[in-house]
Amino acid sequence: MVTGAHQCVTGAGTMTEITKIKDYMRSLERSRAALSRTDRPRTFPMAGREWDLLDGVFAPPFSASTGAAMELLGLTGPTAKPWSGSFLEIGCGTGIVAVSAALAGSDRVTAADISEAAVRNTAMNAARHGVADRLRTVHSDLFDELGAGQAAGERFDTIFWHSNFVLAPPGYRYTTVHERAYVDPGYRAHRRFLAEAPAHVADGGAVLLHFSDRGDIPALHAIAEECGRELRVLRSRRVREGEETVEHILFEITVR
């Protein structure tokens, strides 16, 4: 059985490593553009279904990453499979992954996001697709508010986070909540997720992290080691995004 969160407080990465930050300025530009694009839709199709999109919420039509997450999890495409047990999504956004998990058979789904607009958006899509009876939304910074309105010590069979995998300088301060979906200053959120997630998973369950080679993979591994965690690649998928090919990776996190 996994015990409480391992405390890991040391820094990950030297100044030399920090200079290897990939594309954080470009990611911030994408964030700002996505909020004001004239072609930003109110609804959009994905995975054979129609989804609502609220202002201020990460827009899956403008990025291949949500579709990649669905395929990595086996919620769509040739690897699609039925799901069972409980499912927690951190950073739910529009709720595509959480709602799809409920539709695939998960009987208890919790969808959490630090953005209040994203929480509302997920609730809208849960109602749109008829799974509001088994999908709960929570306004939470990672795991902070999961205890509200539920039994103490609840554990989940699957915990999933499609992370904000682009590393920003430790001193960067967000100008909007929307930017939190794109970059993580100093990988502070990743450190918290690696340290805290195992305390919320059920015996025999899985903690899953969707990362990408746009992020700093060596820095992620260094943080995992400091936290007493191991990262195992479950599967990966290469996706064409504009003029680039990006590798999306699904890691399983275990206690070392």
UniProtKB/TrEMBL annotation:
Pfam families: PrmA. SUPFAM superfamilies: S-adenosyl-L-methionine-dependent methyltransferases (SSF53335). InterPro entries: N5-glutamine_MTase, SAM-dependent_MTases_sf. It comes from the Bacteria. Transmembrane segments: none annotated. This is Release factor glutamine methyltransferase. It comes from Streptomyces spororaveus. The lineage of its organism: Bacteria, Bacillati, Actinomycetota, Actinomycetes, Kitasatosporales.
